[in-house]
């Protein structure tokens, strides 16, 4: 089997290719890209126990409360969701709900539960439990910020029978269908949702293919196979129980210890391979797993009411002065690609705007000169005694900012970097005191642009006064028809990219690695890990 | 006035102990005050920092939610109110709740402290024994060039960063030889490599103090007297030299604990161990002020109590002080160190 990660980068990052790569990794000869099965030629090893080194303490294991990737990667194995989403096509398919429908204005979703599903404590999955889950998320409020955002406008769940119920919203909520595929809205047992927020962080009971065995804070997490599991979605590569008997997640904070441990065989899988170590694991002895975070790429998110950022020509000059391919080469993963829209290429609804976002220094210069800017003696544009400068506030990925800073300086634009702590980053958002924020926002639905930019978003990052954009953002959130919604989402991406309200810099890639004898690790549509099809081969 | 009389009778002991206890309490209070001022002088909002840890990019900046969280974690009200309220709570043993993780700080400390203590104590023992060995070896080494060569080895321990030592030990002893686990805090085996890593700088400091004292004692008149009496080399070293050199080493144990509190942060990160150091690093990064205050106070208390115990030990170990304390009405003649203890 050739290593799929020696294929060209361009092929790898498209979601279809990620899945196809996973398929190829699993040794499957099928090229359909929808099955990630372990091949017939692979023989399962006698021991199906793996050690998966993770990079940080998950802090809270409850997938409804946490937004931390490390924690969600574990939570995904313990919980199932009502629906599942094909990362290749964005199609939403049944999972715990065998059937579902939505009314015309997306204010009521009716589900029918699959028969015979039980939680690992033996209790059955019923409409009542699902209703309790959603009610509990609303009660958690800010402790479950991501899950409650998916339930925006939730007014209650009508239980019509043991297996049928309707989830109601006060306003159209199109992104709920996608939200229902995430582990943030994963369904937990009645006892779990009745427990306190703190207790739920330590122990959760779900219907998933694995069961939590132990969690020792700052040390390790262990999960074991759920006996009798037989309700994976159609997107999974096999049916029945998971292949792995147990997965132990030691918490290894030091990246060099994780990579060294994978090389020496201490760990079978490791989370977050530093991009710089990628080539060490590209040989036949290892598998690399890469998936671009869906949502908004790592970008400059603009506050048009601050500094020079209200000047459209300036913003457009900045976006034209960025050579995104070079930024990707300098700071990205070898498996990644430069962003070509204000949504990443792995986000459902993504539209290729490579032309709008092309590197065009001449165009940038022409725009600025038409706007009255002239190059000063220090190589930076000036107008009326004012220097063309702006500041990006960020709390991670300083290397990306530095690469952009260098390119902008070459094109006469001075960019200042303001690296702050995570708390101060959100402090800046709260006070509105920034020219631009340097960050990405991970979500699996194009609605992420509304969350980022709309005036009605509780914690918007971009501050934009554009009635046309605002009405489009609201319209997509209320359009149930997929094609009609896609047309609006296309318009939004074009508008946001063209007016440079969001200036993309890099598609961040989740990069994990395993030894060659572990196969079948797959990503869900949010680039989180699914271990159900994973297997140790002999 | 009976109590005053009792106090007078207990005079020398009280006069010896009381100032030291007061000093110990002062250190704890001063640490609290400085920590409180530093934390509140830092810019930024700890509630937002904690939210950023828990909610990632979905963190809310809704002022109503932030105010509610501020009240929940005792961060509302004036600074004076918070200063007093937290200090009173500390004396009740209530260290508050971690904003980033939701755990009780006292639980976190109780969980982590024994693990850190295991590493620190083993590192102290290894460092002390190593320093002792090198000191004796250097003292006995002949000729002079060999002695200086031996003397140059221990300072390497402080010159090599603990981070580097740790990573080298992991790749050699864990990944290559498989003798010790690379991570975790499970059992004695997991304690060895972190303790060895920390014992190098600790031992180097012990060695500096210890060897200086030994060489000084070695030149003292009472050692020449002992040698002249025909006592064997081990007896001279054991009874006369080491006994006199041990006092300054004990003095720096307090300082070493201060160093170990910082050093464990490095080894606990490299060896992925749960412990005080790692909790502190995480808490500082997350602006988790209840945890930072709690950990600093616990470490300060340990440091202050250790210093107190060391000071009191002087009274037992140093005959000059012992007799001064033991003397009640009529001070007896002081027995000077160096008078033949044999």
From TrEMBL, chain A:
Keywords associated with the record: Signal, Transport
Occurrences of domain Solute-binding protein family (ranges): 92-457
UniProt GO molecular function: peptide transmembrane transporter activity
GO CC annotation terms, alphabetical: ATP-binding cassette (ABC) transporter complex; periplasmic space
Pfam families given in the database record: SBP_bac_5 (PF00496)
Claim: Signal is one of the keywords in the record: yes
Family, similarity comment: Belongs to the bacterial solute-binding protein 5 family.
The protein's name: ABC transporter substrate-binding protein
Organism: Demequina capsici
UniProtKB/TrEMBL annotation, chain B:
TM spans (from-to): 21-42, 117-141, 153-175, 195-215, 246-271, 291-314
CDD domains cross-referenced by the UniProt entry: TM_PBP2
GO cellular component terms, A-Z: plasma membrane
Gene3D superfamilies (UniProt xref): MetI-like
Membrane topology: Multi-pass membrane protein
Keywords: Cell membrane, Membrane, Transmembrane, Transmembrane helix, Transport
Ranges of residues in domain ABC transmembrane type-1: 113-314
Alphabetized SUPFAM superfamilies for the sequence: MetI-like
Keyword check for DNA-binding: no
Cellular localisation: Cell membrane
Main location: membrane
Gene Ontology process terms (BP): transmembrane transport
Family from the record: Belongs to the binding-protein-dependent transport system permease family.
PANTHER family listed in its UniProt record: DIPEPTIDE TRANSPORT SYSTEM PERMEASE PROTEIN DPPB-RELATED
Protein name per Swiss-Prot or TrEMBL: ABC transporter permease
UniProt organism field: Demequina capsici
Lineage summary: Bacteria, Bacillati, Actinomycetota, Actinomycetes, Micrococcales
